[in-house]
């Protein structure tokens, strides 16, 4: 394989990686009584990753108020990714901290 072909292959791989990162969507930090940022906007078909940063016996569970999804209990430094295919606002909360609320605006 020529140096030019290798360079083209590497550039293509970098573009695919950047495209996949954009499709992944934002990361939302969750912990004791907090969701940060509390409001995020994404495009239909994108995902949001919820990352737990605090210790909690049994973990933190992220759930949609309408019951459309629920994460498994997340231990400290564990993450859960949810894809959103339907436009609208999804209201979320941490099951162990019901006052910790957020919104995912799917456009």
Explained architecture:
With 107 residues, this protein is α/β, with parallel strands linked by helices. Helices cover 21% and strands 40% of the residues. It has one helix at 3-24, and strands spanning 27-31, 34-36, 39-42, 47-52, 62-64, 79-83, 88-94, 97-106. The strands form two sheets. It has a four-stranded mixed beta sheet with strand order 2-1-4-6, with no helix packed on it. It has a four-stranded mixed beta sheet with strand order 3-8-7-5, with no helix packed on it. It is globular, with a radius of gyration of 17 Å. The protein starts with a helix and ends with a strand.
Radius of gyration: 17 Å
CATH architecture: Sandwich
In what order do the strands lie side by side in the largest sheet? 2-1-4-6
Q: Give the overall shape.
A: globular
**CATH-derived topology:** Immunoglobulin-like
CATH homologous superfamily annotation? Cupredoxins -  blue copper proteins
Write down the domain tally.
1
Put simply, the count of helices is 1
Mean pLDDT: 86
List the secondary-structure elements in sequence, H or E: HEEEEEEEE
Q: What is the CATH domain class?
A: Mainly Beta
Strand content: 35-45%
Low-confidence stretches: 5-22
